[in-house]
Amino acid sequence: MCKYKRIVLKISGEALSGNTGHGINSQIVNRISNVIKRISEKGVEVAIVVGGGNFWRGADAKDMDRTTSDYMGMLGTIINGLALQDALEKADVETRLQTAIEMRQIAEPYIRRRAVRHLEKGRVVIFSGGSGNPYFSTDTTAALRAAEINAEIILLAKNGVDGVYSDDPKKNPDSVKYKELNYIDVLNKGLKIMDSTATSLCMDNKIPILVFGIEAPENIEKIVLGENIGTIIKEA
C-alpha cells in the first residue's frame, strides 16, 4: 500500500548528470525512469519538476543580465525534460512534457487542468521551463506546481547529500542530520536546502517536503511505500 497518491518529484539538473556535474548521464536517467515506472504502476500519480543546473545556472552568471541568464537556465530544464520523457516512454510509461514557456513543436504549454487530467489518467507529467519567470528557482516551481495540482508531498531529490544537515557535512564532520524540521526552522536557521520563496510557499500551503539522496534512485520507491528516508520538513 502506497503512502502517497499524488507526488511532485523535484530532480535537480546535476542529479541527471551523475558524477560529472554537466550534461546528461543516460544510465542515471534510465535508472530514475525505471523507478518512476514501478511507482506509477502501483497507482501513484507522478509529476516531475526538473532543474537545469547541469547545463546552465542562471543565478551564477555574474557578467550577464540576470533575466537573460535565467531564461537560458529555463531552456536547460526543457532539454532535461525531453531526456526524461524519452527514457520514460522507452520504459513504456505514458508521459507528457509541459513547458512554462510555450514551445508547441516540442511540448504542451503548461495548463493546470490538462496536467491534472493527465495525472488522473495515470500519465507521468514533466513540468519544464521553470515557472516561466526569471528570478524564480525550479525549487519555487516545484512548490508552485505542487500547490496547483494538490500534490500531497514534494520529494526533493538531492545529489551528494541524503537529507538536511546543521552544516555542510563535507566541510564539517560534526554536522548533525535532521530527521524532521518545521518550515520556520529551515527559514530561521538559514538552511539552504531550498530557497526561502519555495519554503514559504510550501509553508503557506501546508505541503510537506522530503529531502533525500538521489544517488540510489530506488529511494523514491522506498519513500512512497512509507520508509523513513532523508529529512521531512512540515508543519510544527
Structural write-up:
- This protein has helices at 13-16, 26-41, 66-90, 112-120, 138-148, 183-188, 196-205, 218-224; strands at 6-11, 45-50, 95-99, 108-109, 124-128, 153-158, 164-165, 177-178, 180-182, 209-213, 231-234.
- The protein is globular.
- It has 8 helices and 11 strands.
| Main sheet record | 9 strands, mixed
- Name the strands of the widest sheet in spatial order: 4-3-5-2-1-6-10-11-9
Number of separate strands: 11
Order of helices and strands: EHHEHEEHEHEEEEHHEHE
Short overview:
The protein is an alpha/beta fold and 236 residues long.
Throw out a few tags for this protein.
11 strands; two-stranded antiparallel ribbon; 236 residues; nine-stranded mixed beta sheet; 8 helices; alpha/beta; globular
SSE layout and pairings?
Blueprint: E1 6-11, H1 13-16, H2 26-41, E2 45-50, H3 66-90, E3 95-99, E4 108-109, H4 112-120, E5 124-128, H5 138-148, E6 153-158, E7 164-165, E8 177-178, E9 180-182, H6 183-188, H7 196-205, E10 209-213, H8 218-224, E11 231-234
Parallel strand pairs: 1-2, 1-6, 2-5, 3-4, 3-5, 6-10, 9-11
Antiparallel strand pairs: 7-8, 10-11
Helix pairs in contact: 2-3, 2-8, 5-7
